[in-house]
Structure formats: structure tokens, C-alpha cells
Design a protein that fits this description.
By secondary structure, the protein is α+β, with helices and mostly antiparallel strands. The protein contains four helices and seven strands; from the N terminus they run αβαβββββαβα. A hairpin with a 2-residue loop joins strand 3 and strand 4.
Length: about 220
């Protein structure tokens, strides 16, 4: 009975994951919408808003880059997080892209103001990464925690999300557009495994029962 219950649970998880993938794929294919402002922040959630395509304009804050440790298919390096001040008086952190370890100084080159950014809305990542916690006092960052980064820079009215910027047309550093959007979906295999175990268990019990009657 327990194996069947686990199988049913995995079928339910399969339906949830399939729906999640469909919703994210629809967001990725949609045209950009204006990045949410302060009035929309309380209603944001990973389920409803993660990976939405958004657009925002503003001015990057000079000398305010925060480098967050990253590992990509291009090797180890850093995400370049830079505050973008909007005309509405609020700020959003933009992940301008990736720079390899040996080219971290290239992060300082800012595009001409005012800047127009399109990319993917990503929710804050407050728990660190690589099994390590952020250490703002030492400028060591392992996750893109918008609250902690804003506090370290003394920024007011910062969005509770960041934007993964699209790739730059000129191909220069930092390299945008490297967001990995992928979801493991092994629930069908797990469900079949649990149902198979349930069938084997039922067959074994049936064999014991028949053997007991024969004796």
C-alpha cells in the first residue's frame, strides 16, 4: 500500500512539474513587459514571476559593481551585479553578465547612460551557494542576495528581484544571456519504480498465500 501511495505522489509531482515547465516556457517566449515597480513588489513570487521577460531603463551606478562567484560552461568567474537607478526613484540590481576569473577588471566598463536593459526576472537568492555563505564585510559573494547586496551598497528602495540581462550585441564582457533554464523531470520514472515495487510486493504476498494453502 505504501509503494502505491508513493507512486501516486510522484504522479502528482509529475503534473506539477509539467505545468511549471509549460508556464516557464511561455514566459520565455513572451515579449518583455515593464519591470515591476514598488507597487507590485509585495505580490511577486517565484511561482508566478520567475523567468518573466522584463525591460527597464535607467542609469547604472558607477563603481558599484558587486562580483558574485559563478561557475558556467565557460569556466569559473563572476556574475557582475550593478545597481540601475530608474526614473521612478527605485533601483534594481542587474546581472550584467559573466566575466572569467582572469578578466574581472572588465566588469568596470559601463554602457553609456541612459541604459535600456531587457532580460529575465530572477528572485533573490538569500542562502548563498557553493556551500558557502555570503560575506559582505569581505566583499565575498556566493549568491545574488538582493537585500544583502543593497544593504552593503547603502541603497534604498531596491527591488526584491534582479534581472539577468540578455547578451550584449557587441559580444563584449560581461557576457549576458547565460541563464540556465532547466528543470529535472524524473517523476515519471520514480512513479513507475514505485508501482513496479508495489506489483512485486503484491506478487510475493500472493505467492506466500498460495504456498501457505498448499501446505
Amino acid at each position: 500500500m505504501g509503494f502505491c501511495a508513493l507512486g501516486v505522489w510522484q504522479v502528482q509531482r509529475l503534473a506539477w512539474k509539467t505545468d511549471l515547465i509549460a508556464r516557464v516556457e511561455a514566459r520565455l517566449a513572451a515579449p518583455p513587459v515593464p519591470a515591476p515597480g514598488p507597487a507590485d513588489w509585495p505580490g511577486l513570487s517565484p511561482r508566478a514571476d520567475e523567468y518573466r521577460r522584463v525591460a527597464v531603463a535607467g542609469r547604472y551606478a558607477a563603481d558599484s559593481d558587486v562580483l558574485v562567484k559563478a561557475v558556467t560552461d565557460r569556466g569559473p568567474g563572476f556574475w557582475v551585479m550593478t545597481p540601475l537607478a530608474t526614473p521612478g526613484g527605485w533601483t534594481v540590481l542587474v546581472n550584467r553578465g559573466f566575466v572569467p576569473d582572469e578578466a574581472r577588471s572588465a566588469a568596470r566598463a559601463l554602457p553609456a547612460a541612459p541604459a535600456e536593459v531587457t532580460g529575465l526576472l530572477r528572485m533573490s537568492q538569500p542562502k548563498g551557494a557553493f556551500l558557502r555563505r555570503n560575506r559582505p564585510d569581505e566583499s565575498r559573494w556566493y549568491s545574488r542576495d538582493t537585500v544583502a547586496i543593497a544593504a552593503s551598497l547603502g541603497l534604498p528602495a531596491v527591488a526584491p528581484y534582479f534581472i539577468d540581462a540578455d547578451a550584449r550585441p557587441d559580444g563584449d564582457l560581461p557576457i549576458g544571456g547565460l541563464t540556465v533554464v532547466g528543470f529535472r523531470n524524473s517523476h515519471l520514472g520514480y512513479a513507475l519504480t514505485w508501482f513496479a515495487l508495489a506489483a512485486l510486493w503484491a506478487g510475493w504476498l500472493g505467492w506466500l498465500w498460495r504456498r501457505g494453502k498448499a501446505d
